[in-house]
Amino acid sequence: MADLVKEFGETISKNIPGFIATSIIEIRNGICYYSKTSDKNYDIDLGSTFILEMVRAKLNGINALQQKQKIDDITITLTSQYHIINVSEDNEYLIYLAVDASQANLTMTKALLAKHKKMIKG
């Protein structure tokens, strides 16, 4: 699995326009299996910690409301960045991706992420 995760992260960093950072985290225990940034001023590990807490809070809310729903993705639009959080079907892992909004098309970025995500399924 470690090789697949690394290959996925490297593919994302090379093939997503405007790539800033990405990480793959196990939601239950918070283990980060991969992180990479192209911007030395962007602390992907710290950012991932806050994203993890946001996803956990949303999953807890879904459970508390007894909703039969799953998180497909969460998109955060900042002034100059898009942050896309993609959660696995089993709610075990999350993929966090940050891109430069001036270089990335949000719809295309989500489509590329979904396409490349297939390489770590299974």
Helices and strands in order:
Elements: H1 2-15, E1 19-26, E2 32-37, H2 44-64, E3 73-77, E4 81-87, E5 93-100, H3 106-117
Antiparallel strand pairs: 1-2, 1-5, 3-4, 4-5
Helix pairs in contact: 1-3
Any overview of this molecule?
- The protein is α+β, with helices and mostly antiparallel strands.
- It has one domain: Dynein light chain 2a, cytoplasmic (Beta-Lactamase, 2-Layer Sandwich), CATH 3.30.450.
- It has three helices and five strands, in the order H-E-E-H-E-E-E-H.
- It has helices spanning 2-15, 44-64, 106-117; strands spanning 19-26, 32-37, 73-77, 81-87, 93-100.
- It has a five-stranded antiparallel β-sheet with strand order 2-1-5-4-3, sandwiched between helices.
- A hairpin with a 5-residue loop joins strand 1 and strand 2 (32-37).
- Helix 1 packs antiparallel against helix 3.
- The longest helix is centred in the middle third of the chain and has 21 residues, at 44-64.
- It is globular and about 40 Å long.
- The termini are close together.
- The model has no long low-confidence stretch (mean pLDDT 91).
Key phrases:
single chain; 122 residues; alpha+beta; Beta-Lactamase; 5-stranded antiparallel β-sheet
Count of DSSP helices? Answer: 3
Q: Could you estimate the helical fraction of the residues in percent?
A: 25-40%
Total number of distinct structural domains = 1
Instruction: Count all strands and give the number.
Output: 5
Q: Estimate the mean pLDDT confidence.
A: 91
The CA-CA distance between the termini, in Å, is 9 Å
Order of helices and strands: HEEHEEEH
Shape: globular
Largest sheet: 5 strands, antiparallel
CATH first level = Alpha Beta
Q: State which percent range the strand residues make up.
A: 25-35%
* Strands ordered across the widest β-sheet: 2-1-5-4-3
CATH topology: Beta-Lactamase
C-alpha-based Rg, rounded: 14 Å
- What CATH architecture label applies? 2-Layer Sandwich
Low-confidence runs (pLDDT<50, min 5 residues)? none
Class from secondary-structure proportions: alpha+beta
CATH H-tier superfamily: Dynein light chain 2a, cytoplasmic
